[in-house]
Specification:
It is a single chain. The termini are far apart. The strands form 2 sheets. The chain has a 7-stranded mixed β-sheet. The chain has a 3-stranded antiparallel β-sheet with strand order 1-2-5, with no helix packed on it. With about 140 residues, the protein is mainly beta. The chain is globular. It has a domain of about 80 residues: Metal Binding Protein, Guanine Nucleotide Exchange Factor, Chain A.
Length: about 140
């Protein structure tokens, strides 16, 4: 039976396949962040991610972490370098999953843009989603 677009589980992994995960809960939120740290960490114009309860995420394979700030660690595959997760030390019960690492990223469309004050000027936002100059309420 095919998985519905909005119901868990959600599956994904890195480019080389050494890191795989399954998420068995709905996301707390799905957002696109345009802050400069996310741009630099992903090498992209923005970071599209979903936040899940950490205990709902089962991970196979090992990741390495990089502390991009005092509060945020980004986890990636040590073999291929794919950015897979991010975690806030101030919110230990949650784990961010990169939308592009999902096997079916179309199942979790973002609901808002945050940190648009740091958006790269050539990125045009015309998707009708709410935009916040900085962070948004949880």
């Amino acid at each position: 039976m095919p998985e519905s677009e909005s119901e868990p589980p959600y599956r994904g992994g890195c480019l080389c396949g050494k890191v795989r995960y399954v998420v068995d809960a709905k996301p707390a939120n799905v957002r696109i962040c345009h802050c400069r740290l996310c741009q630099k960490a992903t090498g992209c114009a923005f970071f599209a991610r979903a936040i899940f309860p950490r205990d709902a995420v089962s991970i196979e394979g090992s990741t390495q972490a990089y502390a991009s700030s005092e509060d945020l660690r980004r986890l990636f595959c040590p073999s291929c370098g794919t950015a897979v997760f991010a975690e806030r030390l101030s919110r230990p019960g949650f784990l961010s999953v990169t939308l592009a690492s999902l096997d079916a990223p179309e199942r979790l469309p973002p609901t808002m843009h945050i940190w648009v004050s740091r958006k790269i000027p050539w990125v045009v936002l015309n998707d009708g989603l709410p935009q916040f100059p900085e962070g948004a309420p949880w």
